[in-house]
Write a structure and sequence with these properties.
337 residues, mainly alpha, 13 helices, globular, Formate dehydrogenase/DMSO reductase fold
Length: 337
């Protein structure tokens, strides 16, 4: 395995961890206005993700840093193409992060309502835009022979990408509802289970529709060596199993299945891209690959040493955080946020 392939795998791993972990706290944020009747319940919902949300975002920081250092041309072209969506996403995440810190500093209902809706918007916008971005990765964008993006914003807002964005939004919301069922008790837990059961059907149907559209809109299946009539079924099977697990109140297993569905979907996208990083729909020869976009072997070697040190640290810190804060949150708990 060459260093370029190694770093492609590392970045794929980091994005997979980000979508699985950040996915559920995006989902919790989206459900916040609809889960709670009063401020005490809203604080309970927020406190289920309070110890985790900033640690989950470390995966994104690590993934984007890896892109910048290992594949600088990919980073430059991608963020030029997605400049406006990235700015919108960053602003949303800034307001979301500020909301966790500021909402409980004043008792004013208007103050808390503003930050609650900031959490909602700061969760919904990235959940939608990440799906749009991933769809364009595999469908292709207008990139010329000099690795410059030559399209407009409307090129990114195509029907296939919007379908993927809505699908990711619903799956993350389902993921968050099941997480809330795991972390809350009494009425909040029942409400979370009810939301999860209602979200399951549209999330699963859109996932199937997206998979079917992928066969006609992209070369994913042929690039994977899979007959176009056969779709990657593991994500769909995992999602299908969720409703049976929810009916048995097996929220833990249901959460594992949504995690598997998100992880497998992300891995499939990266497998379909390899060795490409960004597909050019002007000329396939102009696509960015791990070879024409990478840093030098010397730089990748140094990065590999850094990754060998810090990725285990990230994993250990995440494990410790989830272990320490594994208990359920009740409305009678001491609430920080």
């Amino acid at each position: 395995m060459d260093l370029q392939t190694l770093w492609f795998i590392v970045i794929a791993f980091l994005f997979t961890g980000f979508f699985v972990l950040e996915g559920f706290d995006f989902g919790v944020g989206i459900l916040l206005p609809f889960m709670s009747r009063d401020d005490r319940e809203r604080r309970t919902v927020i406190n289920t993700i309070g110890p985790f949300w900033d640690g989950n975002e470390v995966w994104l920081i690590a993934a984007v840093s890896g892109m910048f250092a290992a594949f600088p041309d990919w980073y430059a072209t991608l963020f030029s193409a997605l400049y406006l969506p990235v700015v919108i996403m960053i602003v949303a995440l800034i307001f979301r992060g500020a909301a966790f810190e500021f909402r409980s500093k004043r008792d004013n209902p208007a103050w808390r309502s503003f930050w609650d809706w900031s959490i909602f918007g700061g969760s919904l916008i990235p959940a939608l835009l990440w799906g749009v971005a991933l769809a364009n990765f595999i469908r292709g964008v207008p990139v010329d022979g000099s690795m410059n993006y030559t399209g407009a914003l409307l090129n990114l807002a195509n029907p296939y990408a919007l379908l993927c964005g809505i699908t990711s939004l619903l799956i993350f919301t389902l993921h968050g509802a099941i997480f809330l069922a795991l972390k809350t008790t009494a009425d909040l837990q029942k409400k979370a289970m009810s939301f999860a059961k209602k979200l399951w059907a549209p999330a699963t149907l859109l996932c199937i529709l997206f998979m079917a559209s992928t066969g006609t809109e992209t070369d994913l299946f042929s690039h994977l060596g899979i007959n176009p009539g056969v779709i990657p079924v593991f994500s769909v099977l995992a999602l299908v199993s969720v409703i049976f697990l929810l009916q048995k109140n097996a929220a833990g297993w249901a959460f594992a299945m949504t995690s598997i569905a998100i992880a497998f979907s992300t891995i499939t996208i990266f497998m379909a891209l390899y060795p490409r990083l960004l597909v050019s729909n002007l000329n396939p020869a102009w696509s960015l690959t791990i070879y024409n976009s990478s840093a030098s072997d010397y730089s990748l070697s140094l990065l590999s040493v850094v990754a060998l040190i810090f990725i285990p640290v990230i994993l250990i810190c995440q494990w410790w955080s989830y272990r320490v804060f594994r208990q359920r949150i009740t409305v009678d708990s001491k609430l920080e946020y």
